[in-house]
Amino acid sequence: NYWSDRHMENCLFCKIIDKSIPSNIVYENDNVLAFNDINPEAPVHVLIIPKIHISTLNDLKKEHVGLLGELVFTAGILAKKLGIDKDGYRTNFNCNDAGGQTVYHIHLHLLGGRCFSWPPG
Ligand code: AMP
Ligand code: ZN
Predict the structure, then answer these.
(1) Cα separation of 23 and 64, whole Å?
(2) Which residue's CA is the closest to the ligand 1 atom numbered 19?
(3) Burial class (CB within 10 angstroms; exposed 0-12, middle 13-18, buried 19+) of 50
(4) So which residues are the catalytic ones?
(5) Where are the alpha helices (DSSP H) in 28-116?
(6) How many Å apart are CA 45 and CA 40, to the nearest integer?
(7) Is it the case that residue 6 has pLDDT exceeding 90?
(8) Strands in the chain per DSSP E
(9) What is the CA radius of gyration of the chain?
(10) CA of 118 to the centre of ligand 2 (A)
(11) Are 77 and 106 in contact (CB under 8 A)?
(12) Can you list the alpha helix ranges (DSSP code H) found in the chain?
């Protein structure tokens, strides 16, 4: 069925979506969930994820583009809500080992409340 096809057993973030693992939820709608990172790298560190399981950016299909737009749109809305929009903030997706991905359910990091260097390390 729709849910079991899109929900991955043994995926940490799918468990956060179904609330079998607790998280500090910042925003939720039918398509996306945003929650505080458990190990924040900045005063604001929110993870924004799709409610369907997609392992990495490499696994995106054309049908996901609207959903990805919603993740980015949510980052902008939350930046305003959390008061980091004017100073500025960092958003990023990590992909696979070299990109620093550790949880294999795509997530957009929203970081703010301090200055970030560029280029990243
Ligand atoms: P990445 O390294 O890009 O895959 O990011 C994974 C992020 O998930 C890291 O910043 C972790 O701190 C965060 N994380 C891992 N477990 C949890 C959890 N149970 N709740 C919230 N964030 C988590
Ligand atoms: Zn998942």
Answers:
(1) 25
(2) 38
(3) buried
(4) 107
(5) 65-81, 96-99
(6) 5
(7) no
(8) 25-28, 32-36, 44-50, 89-92, 108-112
(9) 14
(10) 30
(11) no
(12) 2-6, 12-17, 65-81, 96-99
Look up residue 7 and give its amino acid: H
CA-wise closest residue to 91 among 63, 68, 59: 68
Taking the C-alpha atoms of residue 24 and residue 36, their distance in angstroms, rounded to an integer, is 6
Question: The tokens of 3 are what?
Answer: 């849910």
Report pLDDT for 7.
86
Pocket of ligand 1 (CB under 6 A): 12, 21, 23, 37-39, 47, 94, 100-103
Q: What is the pLDDT of residues 31-71, one digit of tens each?
A: 999 999 999 999 999 999 999 999 999 999 999 999 999 99
Q: Which ligand 1 atom sits nearest the alpha carbon of residue 93?
A: 3
* Chain length of the chain: 121
Half-sphere exposure of 84 (CA within 13 A, CB side): 22
- Provide the sign of the torsion angle of the four alpha carbons 85, 46, 32, 52, taken in this order: positive
Q: How many Cβ atoms are within 10 Å of 82's Cβ, its own excluded?
A: 16
Of ligand 1's atoms, which has the minimum distance to the CA of residue 23? 20
Query: Percent helix, strand, coil in the chain (nearest 5)?
Result: 30, 20, 50
